Amino acid sequence: MNSLLSRLNSLFAFTLTVMACLTFGCFLSTAFKEYGAPVHIAIGRVSVKNMEDFTGPKGKSDLGFLTFDVRADLDSLFNWNVKQLFLYLTAEYTTKNNAINQVVLWDKIILRGENTTINLKGLRPKYFFFDDGNGLRGNRNVSLWLAWNVVPNAGMLPLLAGQGTGHVRFPEVYEAGRSF
C-alpha cells in the first residue's frame, strides 16, 4: 500500500498535468487569430518650439505640440482569452542624425467589459514630444501610429499595429508665444 503522502503527491502531479494541458489548449484556441482593427487618426493644431534641453550637453532641442483625434472600434480584438488591451500612439520620423526616431505620445488601457469604441477628439499628448536635436522643425515625414498589445489570459503577448496612420508636418517657423 502507498502512504498518504505518496497518494497526495500523485494526485497533485496529475492535477498539475491536467491544468497545464488545459492552459496549452486555451493558448492554441486563439494563437492564430488575427488581431486587426481599422483606426482613423486626424491631426489638429501643430507647433514646435525650441526649448532648453537639460538632459545633456546640447543647448536647445525641439519640442513638438499637437492635438489629434482617434477613432477606432476595437471590439473585434476581444475574445474569451483577452484580458486587456494596452493602446499607445507613437510618432515615427527620420532626421539626418537618426534613421528612425520613435516617441510614445499617448497610451490607454482598456479592460475586458469596458467600452471598446474609441472616439476621442482634441487630445493632447500625455508625454512630451521631445526631439534630441532640431529634427522636428520643418519635418514632413512624421507619422502617427496607433498600436496595441493584446494581454491574454494564457499564451504569448503579441505586438500589433493598427491599420490607420496620421501624418504630421511641423512648421518651418517656430511659433513663439503660442501656448497649449
Topology summary:
Blueprint: H1 4-30, E1 39-52, E2 60-73, E3 82-93, E4 101-111, E5 117-123, E6 129-130, E7 142-152, E8 159-168
Antiparallel strand pairs: 1-2, 2-5, 2-6, 3-4, 3-7, 7-8
Family: Belongs to the SPCS3 family.
Keywords: Endoplasmic reticulum, Membrane, Signal-anchor, Transmembrane, Transmembrane helix
Pfam families: SPC22
Report on this structure:
This protein has 180 residues and is of the alpha+beta class. It folds into two domains: 1-32; 36-168, Immunoglobulin-like (Sandwich). The chain has one helix and eight strands; from the N terminus they run αββββββββ. It has one helix at 4-30; strands at residues 39-52, 60-73, 82-93, 101-111, 117-123, 129-130, 142-152, 159-168. Strands 1, 2, 5 and 6 form a four-stranded antiparallel beta sheet that branches. A four-stranded antiparallel beta sheet has the order 4-3-7-8, with no helix packed on it. Strand 7 (142-152) and strand 8 form a beta hairpin. It starts with a helix and ends in a 12-residue tail after the last strand. Mean pLDDT is 82; it is low at 173-180.
